[in-house]
Amino acid sequence: MSTIEFISITVGIVSLGPGFWGIWFGLHERNRRLRFEVKIQSQFWSSLDRARYVIGDHLLIQELEQQLDHPEKHQLWNIHQAASDLYISLVEQYLSHVTTFTYDDLKRLCDNKFIYMRWQEKQWRYLICRRPENLSNAVPGYFIRSESRDQEPMDNTHIFFDMEKQKNMGLPNKTTECEMSL
After folding, report:
1. Do 168 and 41 meet the contact criterion of CB atoms below 8 Å apart?
2. Is 166 exposed, middle or buried (0-12, 13-18, 19+ CB in 10 A)?
3. In sequence order, which residues have a C-beta less than 8 Å from that of residue 165 and are 6 or more positions away?
4. How far is it, in rounded angstroms, from Cα 22 to Cα 38?
5. Which sequence spans correspond to the domains of the chain?
6. Which one, 3, 30, 130, 160, has the greatest CB density within 10 A?
7. Residue 11 — very low, low, confident or very high, per pLDDT cuts 50/70/90?
8. Per residue in 33-91, pLDDT tens?
9. Phi/psi at 148 (nearest 5 deg)?
């Protein structure tokens, strides 16, 4: 064996170490990123859950405002509106982090009583109707029966701690149909 062959084989063997290390490091970083994404999604769900409770009921806030005679009673509505805006921002932020979200996913959220008011469903529909996965589908009817607050929300805090269910939620028409349905 000549010197050049020996050097070539030695360099090849020495190069395998960093190559294997690079593969291991890449897989390790991928797994870290996936775990981090699951934590972020869990935080999104928790924040959405808290925001929807802070919002309260539109009809109840309107009734309270009509019954109050305090000169600053409009502050009650302002706080409610700020909480509603926060909820919508959190929904937008959540949807920006998921790759697909269909009307079936929305129906699942309504069936689980995570979304229990019609205005919430309208906001979710408005935000998902122009997503590519929904453009070719017909817009289904509303999943929430009415604007009434007679529909009792179900306590569903258990949803956030079951990671497998959370992954399965994916957790989110033609454009004219989408816009017309809102």
Report:
1. no
2. middle
3. 159
4. 25
5. 41-181
6. 160
7. confident
8. 888 888 888 888 888 888 887 887 777 888 888 888 888 888 888 888 888 899 999 99
9. -65, 145
